[in-house]
Amino acid sequence: MSLEKCQNITSLNLNLGYNYLGADGAKNIGMSLEKCQNITSLNLDLAGNELGADGAKNIGMSLEKCQNITSLNLNLGKIIHH
User: Fold this and answer.
1) Lower CB count within 10 Å: N or C terminus of the chain?
2) How many structural domains comprise the chain?
């Protein structure tokens, strides 16, 4: 993922909703975010993906390591089947 090459960014709005991401995708995003330690404001929309409990846990563990974040908007909503 190219996100980890942008380690100096301080604000990130990442909308990956409804992109068929699973737990592995969430893990990769989380690992990339961990390398962007300068982020202070993060808007992360992963709604509509099948992250499952493991994916959500991986995102949470990665965000825990991003200690400079002072503003966080996180959407992990799941797909609702009618």
Assistant:
1) C
2) 1
Is residue 25 helix, strand or coil?
helix
Task: Name 63's Cβ contacts closer than 8 Å, sequence gap at least 6.
Answer: 30, 33, 42, 69, 72, 74
| 15 part of a folded domain | yes
DSSP conformation class of 5 = G
The pLDDT tens digits of the residues spanning 32-47 come to 999 999 999 999 999 9
Nearest Cα residue to 47 out of 13, 12, 17, 25: 17
Confidence (pTM) = 0.87
The span from the CA of 61 to the CA of 25, in Å, is: 14
Single-letter residue type at 34: E
